[in-house]
Amino acid sequence: MAIEVRIPTILRTYTDGRKAVEGSGETLAELFTDLESRHTGIRERLVDGDQLRRFVNVYLNDEDVRFLDGISTKLADGDSITILPAVAGGAGRRAGGMA
């Protein structure tokens, strides 16, 4: 079973700079375990205990896994996983130097 995993820039140090890697597993948890076997340290950045880390968004074929079964979400051959770190923003300076 081949599943494409798209890796955000911040995690590419674990994948030797690769934007996408392949993995396998029947669930998202199994996929992350499989990725860890080849890309040591990546799982710890994605999972805390048995849950996704709070500031990591994971999409299965463009659908947020938090609205599916989270880390227990079932996977199928040919699926695509996208990992995106949550981005927080704040009020920036407006023109004229006023915040």
TrEMBL record:
SUPFAM superfamilies reported for this sequence: MoaD/ThiS (SSF54285)
Cited InterPro entries: Beta-grasp_dom_sf, Mopterin_synth/thiamin_S_b, Sulfur_Carrier/Prot_Modifier, ThiS/MoaD-like
Protein name (record): MoaD/ThiS family protein
